[in-house]
Amino acid sequence: MTADEVRELLEKELGGHFTETTWERLSKNDVKYFMEHQSPEAWQSLNDVAEDLIEYEKELKQELASGGGGKSTARKRRLGQRKSRQNQGVEEDHWFPELIHGGR
User: Fold this and answer.
1) Number of domain units in the chain
2) Which domain holds residue 70?
3) pTM beyond cutoff 0.85
4) Inside any domain, residue 46
5) Would you say residue 102 lies in a domain?
6) What is the pLDDT of residues 51-102, one digit of tens each?
7) What is the 3-state secondary structure (H, E, C) of the chain?
8) Does any domain span residue 40?
9) Is 90 contained in some domain?
10) Which of 10, 20, 31, 84 could be cross-linked to 27 through a Cys-Cys bond (beta carbons 3.0 to 4.6 Å apart)?
């Protein structure tokens, strides 16, 4: 059985498709282990990990499609604060210290 056949079988059994990044991650360890041992236990282990990864990918895609789930992230808060200061006409403070050039 080749890695491509393993992928095809997993995707068929699990009803989903792997992104290339996820497949590469899965191939490095789990598929490689299954290919070396080809036992029912190795297949079950591979199938469990693959199922988790496909479910995780589906959740990520749903979250991205919904605009990040509506949760406020630190980046969104900072952007909101920056826009608020700009709208009020307040100059943005520099967060970095002034560099003092000493005599060398």
Assistant:
1) 1
2) 3-79
3) no
4) yes
5) no
6) 999 899 889 889 988 886 555 566 566 666 655 555 555 454 554 455 555 5
7) CCHHHHHHHHHHHHCCCCCHHHHHHHHHHHHHHHHHHCCHHHHHHHHHHHHHHHHHHHHHHHHHHCCHHHCCCHHHHHHHHHHHHHHCCCCCCCCCCCCCCCCC
8) yes
9) no
10) 31
